[in-house]
């Protein structure tokens, strides 16, 4: 027994548009700035409208500033979450 017919389906989910200012992540250790899609921040990127950054934002994240250590949670399953809880 087991899985006999496995199929993959790709979907594009379009959520509400980002606001007038694009989200970014800045590394406190180096000052490097990145958009959530991995592209580095630049003056040119900041001058484009939010329409140009359609796929480079977290649709449901709150506005503000966050500073935290990056933690790899692997797949985010129960075992992975228990592992990081012990850290």
From TrEMBL:
Say which domain of life the source belongs to: Eukaryota
Which InterPro entries does the entry mention? PA_dom_sf, Peptidase_M28B
Which SUPFAM superfamilies does the record match to this protein?
PA domain
Kindly provide the name given to this protein in its UniProt entry: Uncharacterized protein
């Amino acid at each position: 027994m087991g899985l006999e017919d496995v199929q993959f389906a790709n979907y594009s989910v379009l959520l509400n548009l980002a606001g007038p200012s694009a989200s970014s992540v800045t590394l406190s250790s180096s000052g490097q700035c990145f958009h959530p899609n991995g592209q580095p921040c630049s003056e040119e990127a900041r001058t484009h409208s939010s329409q140009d950054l359609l796929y480079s934002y977290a649709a449901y994240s709150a506005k503000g500033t966050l500073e935290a250590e990056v933690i790899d949670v692997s797949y985010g399953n129960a075992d992975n979450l228990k592992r990081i809880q012990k850290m």
